[in-house]
Amino acid sequence: MNVPRFFVCVGVGVVWLLLAAPPMFESLHGAYTGVHLVTTPALITRPRVRVDRSSPAYRAGLRTGDVLGCMSPRDALLILGGGDAAYRPGTTLSACAIRDGSTISVHFQARPGPPVYNGYPSYLFSALRIVVALVFVLIGIMLVLAKPSLMTWLLYAYCVANTPGYAAEVNASALAPWQYLIVQGLPTVGDFMAVWLLLLFALVVPEATPPRGWRRTAFYAFGVLAVGDLIWVVFEQFASGVVINTSAIDYPVDEMFTGITVLVVIARLATMRREERARFTWAAFAIVFGVIANDLRNVLSGSPTTTMWANVAAYSTVVMPLTLMYAILRRHVIDVRFVLGRGVVFGIVTTLIVAIIGLVDWATSAYLSQVRVALAIDAAVTIALGIALHRSYGWVERAVDALLFRRTHSAESYLRRVARTLPRAEDLSEIDAVLAADPCEKLELTMSAVFRKHGAGYALKAAMNWNAPEAFEIPGRHDLVRFLATERTRLAIADLRSCVRTEFREAGALPVVAIPILRGGELFAFALYGLHQDGTQLDPDELEVLEYLCSAAAQAYMAVQLRRYEQAPAVRPAMESL
Fold first, then answer.
1. pLDDT digits (tens, 9 = 90+) for 256-299
2. pTM (2 d.p.)
3. What number of H helices and E strands is found in the chain?
4. What are phi and psi of 162, to 5 degrees?
């Protein structure tokens, strides 16, 4: 694991969550200044205002018709936004008014107004949203640490940008101006960039490198547009000397991006191979549902008459991260089962160590006054705990596999049991059938085939979901045979020449791994296995089980041949009969 990458991923995720989470549980009041912005249909205008009599702004010297300036972004939001921003009593607001060619400086304090709606219907929903965001960010961190690539970095960036930040944007105006720029600026930029990141991720997934063909062109084109949109958002948020009609451009642009994302996902589904489409479907649903729900929430939240539907849209935004996590973990959009399982195991073991040692330290400090006795108990418990956790690591690993990956764990357990029964087989063909049928069915593979030595080559003895003729034979001088006989370990088909892959593809589904079956150091047989039916690769645990099964088959082949030799009638040599 790369240490700088670890600190960058964890640091950015923690900072973002710390910015977003606390404001979701705050209820602050707005600011009543008495200033009302005079709206116009123009895209960019100077902030001309109308001022209520006897208001704080009126007593400070502001009048109707003044054009405001000299405001920090925070003060501009509080003075012109009023009830839409949080206000801390006693905060001084500063501005200057341009009137009849002269400039007048004003400083005043607003009156607290009604409570500000932070965008979340209840604390329960806020807690749910934070929990989902936390798990989402943790998965993004784990993917980047385990398999750093363009795809996983885009997903991680989206996981962070998708962290709820509306409450932070609203309540940040209660902070000092320089704090406002940080706390309000980062979530705002992240919220606008989330759609772009999801669009770019939809173009790349499931490949680790930049896409090819029309997707490459679209990726770079949308990347340039994303940078342009980011520049516009920064200008829009921090340009305090002008007023930008955001509804005239932001909502149409959001709807356009939503439509583009949906079209890209549909195009991806239409151009994918069948096995890729099977595992991308859930991710496609999550992406489409997420961008539509986000668009509806933005549009509906702008009108008081649609509050109920805005809340429904807000609740539905939780569905997208959950669905995308399901697609990643269960449908293997990204192959992370092995990495995730090990990460959870290490997390559980580390948590147990910290918790137990902390509990013992507290108990010894609280109830034992003699330092030497306390240190001795701490040392003894630490040593015993290390031994116990070392022994329990395998149990924790199996428990995690059983809970998170129940079906695969059950299949691996079954194949290990089958391997132990193979020495009782009565015929070689019975072993061939088990090697081909059981892994293909239990692990849901696209194909399997078993080749056994026949003369100078290796003949096909059993197969599943493979259309090769029964007389299909691989010569002894074939690249695959030479590698297996020499290296005596499993071999990835992708490591061989492209002509070998073409040869196997003509027989149906393409195998991805070959596992040798040795007898006395000689290559007696070998098994070929394909991908999962959902298009995902075999993980290290599954490959280990298949190797264990083939190793048991090697012993079973020898046992069958040994019984045949023992049961065969004795043939007396010709010289003995003379």
1. 877 888 888 888 888 876 666 766 777 777 777 777 776 666 66
2. 0.62
3. 20, 15
4. -75, -10
DSSP assignment of 167-234 equals HHHHHGGGS-HHHHHHHHHHHHHHHHHHHHHHHHHHHHTT-SS---THHHHHHHHHHHHHHHHHHHHH
What are the b/e assignments for 475-485, b being 16+ CB within 10 Å?
A: eeebebbebbe
d(CA 341, CA 544): 15
C-alpha dist (Å) from residue 213 to 197, 210, 218, 220, 541: 20, 10, 9, 12, 35
Distance CA 230, CA 4 (A): 26
pLDDT, one tens digit per residue, over 174-205 is 888 877 877 777 777 777 788 788 888 888 87
C-alpha distance across the termini of the chain, in Å: 76
Class of domain 425-566: alpha beta
DSSP structural state of residue 445: B
Residue pointed to by tokens 């991680």: 156
Q: Which amino acid is at 439?
A: P
Burial status of residue 315 (CB atoms within 10 A of its CB: 0-12, 13-18, 19 or more):
middle
Q: Are 434 and 428 in contact (CB under 8 A)?
A: no
Give the integer Cα–Cα distance in Å for 106 and 70. Answer: 10
Location of structure tokens 């549909």: 266
Number of neighbours of residue 130 by Cβ within 10 angstroms: 19
Q: How far apart are CA 106 and CA 61, in angstroms?
A: 7
Q: Which of 70, 22, 24, 30 is nearest to 47 (CA)?
A: 70
| Closest to 527 measured CA to CA, from 540, 538, 518 | 518
Class of domain 3-22+118-334: mainly alpha
Other CB atoms within a 10 A radius of the CB of residue 472 amount to: 15
Residues in Cβ contact with 162 at an 8 Å cutoff, skipping those fewer than 6 apart? 133, 136, 190, 194, 320, 321
Class of CATH domain 29-115:
mainly beta
- The structure tokens 């116990």 sit at 388
CB atoms within 10 A of CB 80: 20
Report pLDDT digits (tens) over 385-439: 455 545 554 555 555 555 445 566 678 888 999 999 998 888 899 999 999 999 9
Query: In sequence order, what are the beta bridge partners of 112?
Result: 31
Block residue for tokens 């940040």: 172
Element (H, E) at 314: helix 307-316
**What was the pLDDT predicted at 517?**
93
Token readout for 316 is 């539905």
Contact by Cβ (8 Å): 528, 435: no
C-alpha R_g of the chain: 33
Q: 40 φ, ψ to 5°?
A: -140, 160
Gap between the Cα atoms of 452 and 525, Å rounded: 4
Q: What is the rounded distance in angstroms from the CA atom of residue 534 to the CA atom of residue 556?
A: 32
Please give the helix or strand (H or E) that residue 94 lies within, else none: strand 92-99
